[in-house]
Amino acid sequence: MSRLYLTLFVFLLSFSVFSQTEIKKYLDFAKEQYQQGDYVHALEYYQKAMKIDSNSVNTLWAYAETLRAYKDYRKAEYYYQQVYQRENTALFLNSLLNLGLMQKQNGKYKDALETFKKAKKVYRKYKREYVYIKAKQEVNACIWALNNQIENEDWILEQLPNEINTTDAEFGHTYKNNTLFFSSLRADSISSKEEVYSTSYKTHLFQSKRKDNVFDSSAEIKALKETNFSTGNGSYSLDNSRFYYSLCKDESYNYQCKIMVAYLENGQFKDVDTLGEIINAPGANTTMPFVGEWEGQEVLFFSSNREDGKGGMDIWYSFIKDGNQYKKPRNVRSINSIENELSPFWNAKETTLYFSSNWEKGFGGYDIFKTKYTTQFTDVENLGLPINSPANDLYFFSSESGDSLFFSSNRMGVNYTKNPTCCSDIFMLRKPIVAEPETPKESLAELNKRLPVTLYFHNDIPNPRSWDTTSSVNYIDSYSAYIAMLPKYKKEYSAGLNGEKSEDAKDDIEDFFAEYVEQGVRDLEIFRTLLLEELEKGTKIQLTVKGFASPLAKTDYNVNLTKRRIATLNNYLYHYNNGVFKPYFDKTAKNGAYLKIVQIPFGEYTANQLTSDNPNDTKNSVYSKAAAIERKIEVQTVNLIEDTSKIEVNVSLDNQVKDFGTISQGENITKTFRITNNGKDPLAIEKIDTPCACNTVEKFQKIINPSETIEMKVNFDSKLYKGKVVKSVFVKFQNGDQDLRLIVTGEVLQ
C-alpha cells in the first residue's frame, strides 16, 4: 500500500471516529434536554447530529418524538413517515400510530384514516394493548371528522388581543366581574430566539379587566406566585371568598400539581393553603379546579390521575360543605377514558359539564366536549367547529351572563416566533350584535351542508323477493338488522382465506360498517333534527332521494327494490317521535309547512359494473364491500317549494322500466309505456326530453284527463352501443311539480 493511500485511510478512519464521537455527544445532550422538557435545545442538537448522519433511524425517531412534544405537527409527520418507511414498526412499534396522529393534527383526515386502518392490521396481534385500541378508536374519530366539517355560524370567533396573547402560551381559566383570569407560560426574560419549552419558562396567573369589549393590559397576580413553581387554573367559590388554583412543580414538563385555595379579604388574596389529601391524593397529579353549584350544593370539579381512575387524567368531583370540608371525590366514569380528560367547566344553569379529551371522537389532539346531567351524565357531544380544530383545544368556559365563550387553542393562526402550532392563545366566541333574520333559502343552507345523507341496506332488503314498489319497514329497523349481520359478513367475506388475508378481509368489512353504514345513521339523525326545525318555522320543503342497488338482480326488479328502500326513509320520518313529522307529510300542519319526497329510483346501472352479479358467488355479489357499497339510498337535494300554483303530478306506470333483454348491435327496439293520471286535474304534456339521440318517441296523446291512461312508444337505436345500457326519457308536464322518467334497459351484443 502506498504512503498516500495509507495516509488517506488513516484520515478517513480518524474522521469516522471523530464523527461518531461528536454524534454521541450531540445525541446524549439532546436526550438530556428532551427529558428535562427543553425541546428547543433538544431539537437544536438532534439537528446537529443529523447533519453528520441523517440515515440513523434511531436519531430520526428521537427527532420526530421531540417535534411532536414541541407540537410541530407538520415536521413531526414528515419524520414519523421517514421512520416508518425504514423500519415498518419493527424497531418503533408506535411509528405508524404516531404518523396517523400527526396527519390528523394536520387536518389530513383522509390520509390519517387510511393510516389508522393500516395500523389496525399491523397491531392486530396486540389487540389488548394501547396501540391497537387507539388505532381502532382513531379510525372512528377520522370518520367522524370527515363528516362533521361544518362550522357553527351562530357565534363570532375572535382571537384575544396582544394585551393577553403573546408569542408564548396563554390558557384561559375563568371570567368574573368583567375580568379574565388566565395563565401564561412566559420566561422571566423573554428572548426572541426562543419559544415556550425552555427550562426558564414558568406558568403564572394573570388578570385583565374588560370594559366595552376592550381588554386592559394583563397584570400578573404576584400574591399567588411561588419561586420555582408554576401556577395556573383558577376558580372562585360561590360566595367569592375563596380562589382555587393549581401549584405545579415541573418534572420534565410533566407537571406534578396540587390544588391550592387562597382566601380573600377586601378583594385581596391573603392566606393560602393546600387542600388536604382527600383532594390532593399523595403521589397523584391533581389540577384544574372549577367550583360551581349543583343541586343546591357547592361542588369542586378537578382533573387527576389518582388511583381508581379509568386511565390517564380523569374528571372527578367533590361536594364542599361549609367552605372547608370536602366529601370523598367521585369519578365521572361515564365520560372518562383510558387517556386524558382535562379542564372541567360546570354550567349550573344548563346542568352541563364541559371538558377536553384526547380520546373521544374529534378533530385533533384534544377537543372540547359536553355532557348534560339529568339523572346521570348523558353521552358526550363534540362542540364542533370553530371551537374545535385539528390542534389542541382546552379550557372552555363562559362569562357569567353566557354572552361570551372562551377557550384556548394552539391552532394555526396563533402568535408564534418559529413553530406555528407551538403555543396556545385564548379565543373568544360572542353573539353577533344584530342578528339579521334569515330568508327561507338561507335557512335551508344548513340542511344542504349535511348532504348527501346516505343509508345502506342488506341484499334484497326490504321485502325480499317482492315486486312491490312500497314497504312498511322503518329504516331504523332495517339498519338494526343489518348491523346485527356484521359477524356473518366477516365470516362470509373471509371464507376460503387464511391467516393475514382472512383477518384483512374481516377488517375491511368492519371498517365499511363503521365508515358507511353506522355513519349514515349518525348523518340521518342530525339531518332529521335540522329538517324538523325548518318545518316548524313554516317552510315548505322538497327532498330528492335517489335509490341504488348492486347488480345481482334484473334492472326492473332493482328499480322497484330501490323504491321500497326509499319508502323505509319515509316510514322512519313519518313515525319518528310519535309522528312529529306526520302533519307535514299530510299537509295538515297549522303553520302551513309540508314535506314532499321525490323519488329517483335508478336501479343497477349506476352501480360499479365490475361488481359481481353472479348469484352463486355470494361472497362477492352480496358480502363484499364492493357490492355492499352500492346498496343504498341518498338524500341528495333539499329545495324550497315556492310556487304553490304548480299542479301535482300524480301518475302511475304499468312499469317504469322496460327491459328489452339481449339484442344485436344495430337493432332497433320499441317499448310501450302506459301512463295513468291518478290526480284530480288534467295533465298537459309540454315537452319530451330525450338526453340521448338514440331515443325517439312516437306520436302520443298530449292531454291526460283524470283516471285516463295513454300509451307512449319509446324507440331505442343500438347501432352505437354495446354491453349493458340504460337510457331515459323524461316527460315534462305543463306547470307540473315534477317530471316523469321512462327507462329502457338491456344488453347489446356486438
Summarize this structure briefly.
The protein has 750 residues and is an alpha+beta fold. 29% of the residues lie in helices and 30% in strands. A hairpin with a 3-residue loop joins strand 13 (314-321) and strand 14.
Number of helices: 16
Fraction of helical residues: 25-40%
N/C terminus separation:
78 Å
Number of strands: 35
Low-confidence stretches: 8-15, 189-194
Mean pLDDT: 89
Q: Radius of gyration in whole Å, from Cα?
A: 33 Å
How much β-strand is present in the residues?
25-35%
Output the structural class. alpha+beta
Major sheet: size, sense and barrel closure? 5 strands, antiparallel
Molecular shape: globular
Helix-strand blueprint:
Elements: H1 3-36, H2 39-52, H3 57-69, H4 73-87, H5 95-105, H6 109-122, H7 130-146, E1 156-159, E2 169-176, E3 179-187, E4 201-211, E5 214-215, E6 219-220, E7 230-236, E8 242-249, E9 256-265, E10 268-274, E11 286-294, E12 297-304, E13 314-321, E14 325-326, E15 330-331, E16 341-347, E17 352-357, E18 367-372, E19 381-382, E20 393-398, E21 404-409, E22 425-430, H8 440-443, H9 445-449, E23 453-456, H10 475-484, H11 486-493, H12 499-536, E24 541-547, H13 555-575, H14 582-586, E25 595-601, H15 618-621, H16 625-628, E26 632-640, E27 651-653, E28 657-664, E29 668-677, E30 683-689, E31 695-697, E32 703-704, E33 709-717, E34 723-733, E35 740-749
Parallel strand pairs: 24-25, 28-35
Antiparallel strand pairs: 1-22, 2-3, 3-4, 4-5, 4-6, 7-8, 8-9, 9-10, 11-12, 12-13, 13-14, 13-15, 16-17, 17-18, 18-19, 20-21, 21-22, 23-26, 24-26, 27-29, 29-33, 30-32, 30-34, 31-33, 34-35
Helix pairs in contact: 1-2, 2-3, 3-4, 4-5, 5-6, 6-7, 7-12, 11-12
